[in-house]
Amino acid sequence: MSHTSIPLFFNPTAARGRAKSRLPTIEKLLRDNSVEPDTHCSTSMGDLEQQIRAAVDSGVERLIVAGGDGSVHEAVNGIMRADNDAALGIIPIGTGNDFAKAANIPLDWQAATRLLADRITSNSAIRRIDVGRMNDRYFGNGVGIGFDAKVSRIAADLSWPIGDLIYLVAVFRAMADGIITPHMKIVADDYTWDGPLTLANISNGSWVGGMFHIAPMADHADGILDLLIVAPVSGPRILRLLPKLMQGSHMNEPEISRVGVRKLQITVSAPVPSHMDGEIMPLGTSFDIEILPGVLALI
Q1: Which of 21, 29, 180, 260 has the most CB atoms around it within 10 Å of its CB?
Q2: 41, 72 in Cβ contact below 8 A?
Q3: Are 163 and 109 in the same domain?
Q4: Closest CA to 248 of 219, 216, 204
Q5: 191, containing H or E segment
Q6: Which residues span the domain enclosing 268?
Q7: What is the CATH classification number for the domain harbouring 196?
């Protein structure tokens, strides 16, 4: 049986370095299912993005990324910045795998590899999903400004082998450091917020931090971003909200507001942390965010 050749971009540092050992199995599973991987490993942050952009510019029409949400973030930016288009296949081997959850990709990475190989060899129809843009970068899953960005930064510095529980540990550490409530002005379509808040989360997918169902109504193919605002809250109140955030049952809480938007601008009185798909961005005071409907193809 002939094999279909396809580039495989692999991040050995996914899952805090524990993904490295999975590459031989992924390659074997693909070959056993008639897909011949042309493997490229990333060597540093940003390398995967550059490799993917160059591949798409050279005419590659389909590619696979094996990694976590940071790898997906780089892949989305590589494809979006390229002059050509390419369909993206994902094998989730990261810690949180929020994008995979939103895209209904199996979190069992071996099952995801087999399913992806079947879709490639059968030439299954691609799905088109939305991509967000904040300032000059793209995101597949979501953006956080404020407290959840601080949590993401702390989680990125932890290397404990406890899966997505690392984000829960990071929440407690962030609370111990103090809860910032910066003054933000948010102008989004017909909605305006002008005042202090704990966080602003802008979701394309519904999960963040692996275990928090932060935007249960989000759909990455509806042309809408879910803007979730949490008004200033105390540490004890955050502890009471955590179980609801994990279950997605927090939307009726008095401190929480949600609105669907297509475009928004956020300005902050002093530099604040932000993240895109869990990747930490430089401190900033101005954030222009919009949805780009249907611009990304998924295998």
Answers
A1: 29
A2: no
A3: no
A4: 216
A5: strand 191-196
A6: 137-291
A7: 2.60.200.40
